[in-house]
Structures are given as C-alpha cells and as structure tokens.
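Hi R.,

Here's the chain you asked about this morning:
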Amino acid sequence: MKTRFLFALVVLGFFPGREGCLLQAADNLELRSGDRIVLLGNTLIERAQIYGYLEAILVSGNPGLDLTFRNLGWSGDNVFGHSRAVFDAAPKGFGKLRKQVADAKPTVLVIGYGSNAAYAGEAGLPAFIAGYTRLLDAVSETGARIVLLSPVRLEKKKPPLPDPAAQNRNLAIYTAAISKIAAERKLLFIDLFSKLQARNSREQLTGNGIHLNKLGYLRAGQLIATSLGAGLGPVELAIDAGKPSLVSAANARVEGVERKGGGVIFKLQRTSLPSFSGEGGIQEVLRVQGLRSGRYALRVDGAEVLQADANEWKAGVRIAGGPDFERIEKIRKLAVEKNFFYFHRYRPANWPYIYGFRRHEQGNNAVEIPLFDPLIKEKEAAIAALRSPVARTYELARVKGGAK
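And here is the predicted structure, written out as tokens:
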C-alpha cells in the first residue's frame, strides 16, 4: 500500500548579491509501508525525540503504512559531524556520522542543519555549502529519499535577552542556501524558518528564544508531517437531531444516526486519529441542529467529553477530548519511550569504554547494547496496534435540569 504526494515550494533567495532571486525546490515524495524515517541534524533534531510529535502525527496520519523512526540528532553538531567525534579528532566525526546513518537503514532521511553555522554569517556560507554538499553525497549512498529542513527562526524575548533580528537575517541567508541545494538536487525542502511562527503575541514557540518548546515541536511536527503527506484533515460533522440524519461528514464515517431521549446517538470512525487538537493543533467541530433548548453533554463511548447548550451545538462546538485524543497522546508517549531506548542503543553514555579509546577496559560490555533492540521493537509494536482509529459511539444527551 502506498500513497503519493507532490510538494513544491518557492523560496525567495537571500544570497549576497542575488537579492530577489527566486529558487524552486520540488520533489515527488512517496511514503511507503515499511519506510524507516531517520532524522539527522543538530539540537533541533535531537530535542525532537523528547516530545515525539512528528512521529505520532506521521504514524497516525498514515494508519495504513507501517512506518518506523530513528532519531540521530546530536546537539551542537554541524554538517561536518564534528560533535560526533567525541574524544577523537573532530574530522573523524564525519566517518561516525556516515556509519550511524548507514546502521539506521533509512529509506527516508530528514536532515536539519544550519542553525549553528549561521552564526558565521555570510563569511561562513561557502564552507557550509561545501560541507552540506559532501554530507548529501555521502548519505545518498543509502538510497534514501532525502528531505531538507531549514533552521528555525529565533524568537524575540524580553530583555536582558538580545534582539535576534541580526541573527535572523543570517538564518534567512542559510535558509535560502539550503533551498538552493534542495532545488539543484531535486530534494524536498521544508521552510520552517518562514512558516513556523507564533500565531499571536501571547504565543511562545521556544523556551529561550532558540530552542523549541513543546508547542513549538507540535507545530513543527505538523508542518513537516503535512509536507510528507500525513492525513491531518480535521473531523467536521453536521447532524440533524430533529429528523434524525447526517447532514455532512468530513474525514470520518458516520452511521446509525438515531434519536435517543431528547438527544441523538450515532457511530463515528475517523479516517485518522486527531492531531493533538487540544494543544493548539487542528480543531474538530461538531454541529447539531434540531435540538430543543437546553444543555447537552457529549459522551464518547460512555465517557463525558464536554457540555454546551443547544444554540452552541447548532453553531458548532470544537471537540478537543475523548478516547481518540487519549489514543494519539499514548502513541506520542510510546514514541518518546522508544526514542529513549534507541538513544542509549546508538549513543551509550559510556561510549569511550565500550567503543572508544578505553574499550580495552570494558569493551566486553558491548554485548549488552543489542539488548535494547527488543525493547525498541516492543514499543513499535504497541504504536502499530494503536495507529488505526476504531468506531466510537457518540451520544448527545440532554443534561438533567438543563432546560431553559
């Protein structure tokens, strides 16, 4: 089973001396059952594993595809792999990066670099482009379909933190450089720098102006997942309780609409699980007309989710809770647990003693590292068992004493 997606993005270039140059990056990206999606990059990528949003959204948005994920992020890393050298000379880090990618067996490789390099400004751009080109040449040997992410925009915070305007100009330059690389190689490019921004003055997507917080990773995960083809359409229902009948349903199948008492009952099965609507994500709406005046409780599989009066139900009530929302949150937590095991599988804390310059002392303990594998598979199996939505019983029941 497979689905095909076409994504094209036009980015305004900001290269020195080439202002106003239009660059186009486009790729026909195909997600297939059995894909191994590997994330490679610096702090932006490494910290994604402690939130798990991208994985949860992609898994639940493609319930018919058997997708697995590996996070190879390394804080402070660059396109040369210097941070991965650990106690070796910095240039040796690139060889370790290549091996880590090969060992992860990617079929889709999502790469996020540039945030650190941008501090070098325009002067550092040629070295960054050369290093990125070498990196892509190396990882292309895996045969994986490659996706390039831009760095994220720095967020302005209150003093004494500095105004990030100057550094954001550097990040714009590096974003344009990455988009140009993507265009030249016909790779999918996802512009987080331009698209990932707060929706209002109260919203904060970072904790310190640099690193994304929980909401920031939710929004980034939704942007990336949308570009990779996750089915993120919200459920929108309209029910006529007076007839009773289904008026319309988007992204869900509805059956058996019946009157029950003063309310209505029906079966609903989503096309895919919801995308964390209760946390600022995509909202879901239920409209019910034909109710007598009064207050009504929405129950899903017998558990009350919320209450609203008849006029509110007629106008449309946003749904942000219930067993399907609990299900997607459970998938996210399982992804975080799996990421914890994988992190210690490929990057054990006592690496110098197991694989490095002191392996002559405790290298025999390397036989224990594969013991993480069944733990990882156990979490992946649990995720797979939850990724497909099931039929739910929705009931709108009149609240006792709720008549006006």
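One quick note: Residues 1-26 have pLDDT under 50 and may be disordered.

Cheers,
M.
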